Amino acid sequence: MRSITRRTVLKGLGTAVALPFLEAMMPRRAMGAATAGITAGPKRVAWVYVPNGVTMQAWTPAQVGANYASTRILEPIAAFKDRTLVISGLMCDKANANGDGPGDHARAGAAYLTGSQPSKKVSDGMHVGVSADQVIAEKVGHITKFPSLEIGNEEGKQVGNCDNAYPCAYNANLSWRNESSPAVKDCNPQSVFDRLFGNGLAGESEEARAKRMTRRKSVLDFVMDDAKSLQNQMGTSDKHKVDEYLTSIREIEVRLSRTDAKAEVPKDAVRPVSPGVRDFPDNCKLMIDMLVLAFQGDLTRVITFPFTNELSPMKYPWCGADVTHHGTSHHMNDPQKIELITKINVYHMQHFAYLLEKLDAIKEGNASILDNSLISYGSGVGDGDRHNHDNLPTLLVGKGGGTVATGQHIRVNRVPINNLWMAMMDRMNVHPTKFGDGTGVLKI
Questions:
Q1: pTM above the 0.90 mark?
Q2: Domains of the chain, each with CATH number or no CATH
Q3: Which candidate in 74, 112, 204, 223 could, as Cys together with 12 as Cys, close a disulfide (CB 3.0–4.6 Å)?
């Protein structure tokens, strides 16, 4: 078995398919370390965001420490309790008004990863801060095809005002490259797929896509010659791993073709990926599967994935909550509305569980991608009815390569959530002395 470099790519017309982590990519010393119990894969970080807060009494465990009992909302991820850190008491002060009046949802979205007060003055235009994911991408992004990947399920307006005179872009974007430029998320699964497996040459990529569409070809048809020649350098285990990886790519292609046929949106139309155009379950699982492939192929190590936008009006008939998300979050202690919003919270968590299962199924040395990652899940709003930002629902899942003491519920008192982001930066070998309103690295 010959050595294969981590940067090996299967190439064809308009196509570039990166390989997953293989034993043949590990130097002999690293293989020995993996056998001895040391993880071998790269560290990754991702942020999964849910808007409009949650039902906190159905989220927060009663006990602190390792012996906490799962709550109704956390139950879908109970199988990952040993790799989950539940954190209560984190706050996002810059999502508070601080003299700027109403507009909690816009501020929550914009301040969540930046820890900066979003500007409301029309004369200032958009003005917030660089987000945590982009700080990390600036440091490690040169290693991978994409410095970072921003995906989502619900497009949002990038111009105009939406929430009490705040720019609409605050509601729609989690990631910010600089103080006035968001890293706009891609909500079209086909677009994301083409970016992940295109070779970056526009003419070739368009030609290859046209051939795939007219001849019902797969991207894999363009790289099979490369794949076959590489098989002679692989052991049995690596061949099996590559086969599984390529099969996953092909399965996504098949699902994309079915979903696009169902959508039937004119080519020149603006595609708001929302109810009526593409069902949330289809879109979300496709995006999750491509997030997993992006990590598996080491196409990026930094991802942001808001399930929907702040103020999202999306309805959830798939879980018995055919009501608008944002409107129902203002439950005013109505038991029926609280039950409906809790069903939406549980439904989101079920999709998060799907992501964790997929990441954990892919092994790297003696660990999994999940073991080598830190996946944050949470919201910039605590209770949707109260619009509070001083006790945010927050999870950190994964071991970060064995660097985090998971398997417990910890409670802090009004600690900036940016302290958690600084801790994630620290695990990615980014060591800022200051970030947003952070006061230091959170001990995790």
A1: yes
A2: 39-188+271-427 (3.40.720.10)
A3: 223
